[in-house]
Amino acid sequence: MQNNLILENRKTLHLSGVTDVDCFNDREIRLYTELGTLTVKGSSLHVNEISVETGDAVVEGEISSLSYGDKLTRKPGIKGLLLK
Hints:
mainly beta, six-stranded antiparallel sheet, 62% strand
């Protein structure tokens, strides 16, 4: 799965390669990708679209930073906990 980012006018972020969402609020969204944890920071943020089947997501709001963390083994998300 590829990991691509397209940022339009610092307001709309199109992502591919998303495997799960860790947490989100109006100032920070943390996503898991095959390349590591991606943190999106800004204001008035919201996840407009997400598909864990295709790995595509769209984030909208005032985006001020994007940063990758280490490629770590993650804990199971809510989906993993519910399917146990």
